[in-house]
Write a structure and sequence with these properties.
457 residues; alpha/beta; Alpha-Beta Plaits; eight-stranded mixed β-barrel; 17 helices; 41% helix
């Protein structure tokens, strides 16, 4: 391996590592110094008919050809030799990243490969791995993911020359367009008898996916789902830049245990929140109901790392037969929200009196539990005014329901948040019981805006 190779092109930095501790130096220079930025790893093998220096010169040339007018030039970090070459690519700077400035590395390498073969310049095999954000993971985790994904892409290229392996999912992680929506949470103030928006649950959304399940369906079976969940969480947090109110994010207990198994990683997550100007006390992680195993660390210990920064937790789909009861027992006061499964209040007395009384008793139990822990109860899927009044009567004052607001893009949520406050209960009753206004609400999807358009407030 060549040592001390000088910069080949003035505006492109090359670091070629040939010393004994090369891999460690490569990881620190390429990954740690570019933390939080999208990273690419080009893996090249079986390089023939060209010197290493000339080959390294061609790569930035093709990147510039495929990405004309890029505002900043990427930095390159090189490890290996002609048989096995790893080229790390990072875009320098602190600006927010989007598709306009992220280089198309796959396209550049593809064009280079095709033209080199056609012109007899050289021959080589390649694969590109990419990973976004990386605020939380440690250097070895990021490197291993890049190394694994670039090798898989190389093998895919050898079979069918497919330039990406995540397809739509890859596009989702690579850009910053409207890729997140929020389902608002509404609070009823019994003293003022008004409803106000207090925050909401943040979801995968936008033009590529309707929701989290659709995205996960596009992830190949051999991928690490825990890491994918972490990248989704990071991306959603970044989409919430300067967002007001309570922000809630879904995460499975297993992913929490596996990806936040040290205080350092949670510290980095806390730093990410501050970078996006989000108060950690306004962040709540919803633990979805999935089985989990505690091998090296307990769920409670992991959650304690978050709790010290003010980040709280919610028990999702908290019902009579829910497994989330164990999570509530384990986490104690760190659970600040109980999300009621709709089955807990859907039954009417005339339909099944015994089941109605059972669910009524369960709601009262939740109220006592919430009072003891200074937590809130959130009811989902409240579609009519009778159910709304029933829950309010039984001291359930938070609602996450399309009857008030459908999912909103984060930009609309941030723009309208301060306007969507203090809607009188009498106006809500009028809209939810009037056929014409109810139809408007179904179309508009925002009870506050329907009230204003009809001059009810």
């Amino acid at each position: 391996m060549q040592k001390g190779l000088q910069p080949i092109i003035a505006d492109v930095l090359f670091n070629v590592f040939g010393m004994a501790d090369a891999e460690k130096t490569f990881k620190i220079s390429f990954i740690e110094k570019n933390r939080g930025r999208p990273l690419f790893l080009i893996r090249c093998q079986n390089l023939e008919k060209i010197t290493l220096k000339d080959f390294l010169t061609k790569i930035p040339e093709y990147i510039n050809r495929v990405n004309p007018g890029m505002p900043v030039k990427p930095n390159f970090y090189v490890l290996g030799d002609e048989k096995e070459l790893l080229i790390g690519v990072a875009v320098p700077g602190d600006q927010k990243y989007n598709t306009a400035i992220l280089p198309n590395i796959d396209g550049a390498m593809g064009r280079f490969h095709d033209e080199a073969l056609r012109n007899g310049l050289c021959d080589f095999d390649f694969g590109v791995g990419r990973t976004q954000c990386n605020f939380v993971s440690d250097v070895d985790e990021i490197f291993n993911e890049l190394a694994r994904s670039s090798l898989k892409n190389l093998k895919d290229n050898l079979v069918r020359w497919s330039w990406t392996y995540f397809n739509r999912a890859n596009d989702y992680f690579a850009n910053e367009e409207a890729n997140a929506v929020i389902q608002p949470i509404i609070h009823y103030d019994p003293k003022k008898e008004t409803f106000s928006m207090k925050g909401g649950e943040v979801f995968v959304g936008g033009h590529l996916y309707r929701g989290y399940a659709d995205l996960m369906g596009d992830i190949p079976a051999d991928q690490d789902s825990n890491r994918i969940e972490l990248l989704i969480l990071e991306k959603l947090v970044m989409a919430c830049h300067e967002a007001p109110g309570l922000l809630k994010f879904n995460i499975s207990p297993q992913t929490l245990i596996d990806t936040f198994d040290s205080a350092e990683k949670v510290y980095r997550f806390n730093q990410l929140l501050h970078r996006e100007k989000i108060d950690p006390r306004n962040v709540r992680l919803e633990l979805v109901e999935k089985p989990y195993e505690e091998k090296n660390i307990k769920l409670k210990d992991v959650c304690q790392y978050f709790w010290q920064y003010g980040i709280s937790f919610a028990a999702d789909d908290f019902g009579v037969k829910s497994q989330s009861h164990q999570v509530v027992l384990d986490l104690g006061e760190m659970i600040k929200e109980f999300k009621l499964d709709p089955i807990s209040f859907k039954f009417k007395p005339e339909e099944d009196h015994t089941k109605f009384l059972d669910n009524l008793a369960f709601i009262d139990y939740c109220v006592r539990l919430a009072d003891n822990r200074e937590a809130i109860i959130t009811a989902e899927a409240v579609d009519d005014f009778d159910t709304l009044r029933f829950l309010i009567t039984h001291q359930v004052h938070y609602f996450q329901t399309n009857a008030f607001c459908t999912k909103m893009h984060l930009a609309d949520y941030k723009r309208l948040y301060h306007e969507l406050q203090n809607l009188p209960e009498v106006v809500v009753q009028k809209i939810m019981t009037d056929a014409a206004l109810t139809e408007q609400q179904k179309i508009k999807g925002n009870i506050f805006l329907v009230a204003k358009e009809n001059q009810l407030i």
